[in-house]
Design goal:
This protein is 37% helix and 19% strand. It is built from six helices and seven strands, in the order E-E-E-H-E-H-E-H-H-H-E-H-E. Helix 3 packs antiparallel against helix 4. Strand 1 and strand 2 form a beta hairpin. The N terminus is likely disordered. A five-stranded parallel beta sheet has the order 5-4-6-3-7, with helices on both faces. The chain has 175 residues and is an alpha/beta fold. The longest helix has 14 residues.
């Protein structure tokens, strides 16, 4: 938390803020508009593989995305340590198949995936160290591909940041 002077000499406190955002449902332009409209200054890419299949979402492939973000004045950082393992992703895909939903239509994470991600990835990760590096003058976006945060591991990270570190969380979704 940073403390400074606000209007008329009042004491102003800057708090770290978190946003979550996915790829699906956005164009590159709309994606950047949602980020800038949400006051995002840093995007944390939580994907293991930083590409998205299909021409419609080629803008979200790492090099293009980083270029677009830089042009918009938004920082980028890949946090691969918070990406799910291939085994965890396959566990979720099996549950998607069992329920007859595609990755782009998923609305919730499988309980086994949540448990595995929490035990294997989230619990051992140093969130306190990450929080200390986040900007206080802009929001930080947790980024992956799923449209809805409830269908993505980024929601698990966001919940932990809210509960254990007191950060406010906003989900940025397509219009």
């Amino acid at each position: 938390m940073a403390v400074g002077r606000g209007p008329a000499g009042t004491r102003a406190v800057a708090m770290r803020r978190i946003a979550t955002i996915g790829v699906y449902g956005f164009t590159a332009e709309a994606f950047v508009e949602r980020l800038t409209g949400g006051g995002v200054g840093l995007l944390l890419d939580l994907r293991q593989r930083r590409g998205v299949r299909g021409r419609e979402y080629s803008w979200a492939n790492s090099a293009r995305l980083q270029h677009t973000l830089a042009e918009a004045g938004i920082g980028y950082r890949h946090v691969k340590e918070l990406a799910p393992t291939t085994e965890l992703r396959h566990l979720q895909y099996r549950e998607d198949d069992r329920q007859g939903v595609g990755k782009r239509n998923r609305i919730a994470l499988a309980p086994g995936y949540v448990e595995g991600y929490t035990d294997e990835i989230l619990d051992p990760f140093d969130l306190r160290g990450l929080v200390a590096e986040l900007p206080v003058d802009a929001a930080t976006a947790l980024f992956c591909v799923e449209r809805d945060p409830e269908a993505c591991h980024r929601s698990l990270v966001a919940i932990r940041l809210r509960i254990e570190h007191g950060l406010s969380v906003t989900d940025l979704r397509p219009e």
